[in-house]
Design goal:
It contains three helices and no strands. By secondary structure, the protein is an all-alpha fold. It has a domain of 52 residues.
Length: 89
C-alpha cells in the first residue's frame, strides 16, 4: 500500500503539467492568431508544442520511476541475504 501512495504525487504532477502545458501553449497560439492572423495555424502550433511538452514530462517521469525501481532492486532482501552469506565464511 505504501508504494501506491508514493505514485500519487508524480501522477498528479504529470497530469497537472500536461494540462497546464497544453492550455498555456494553446492560449499563446490563439493570441498570436488574433494578433497576426493566419487562420488557426498558431493555435495548432501551440497545441503541438503543448503535446511535445507533455511527452517530455512523461519521459522525465518514466526515467524517475525507472531509477526508483532500480534502487529498490538493489536493496531487495534477497540481495542482502546473499551479501551476508558471503561474509560468514
Amino acid at each position: 500500500m505504501m508504494k501506491k501512495q508514493t505514485l500519487y504525487g508524480p501522477s498528479i504532477a504529470l497530469g497537472t503539467n500536461m494540462i497546464a502545458g497544453m492550455a498555456l501553449f494553446t492560449f499563446l497560439g490563439y493570441k498570436l492568431d488574433c494578433r497576426f492572423g493566419g487562420g488557426r495555424m498558431w493555435t495548432l502550433g501551440g497545441m503541438f508544442l503543448g503535446l511535445v511538452y507533455g511527452g517530455y514530462e512523461v519521459w522525465k517521469l518514466a526515467l524517475q520511476l525507472q531509477a526508483a525501481a532500480k534502487g529498490n532492486e538493489d536493496r531487495s532482501p534477497k540481495k542482502e541475504e546473499e551479501n551476508t552469506g558471503d561474509r560468514q565464511e
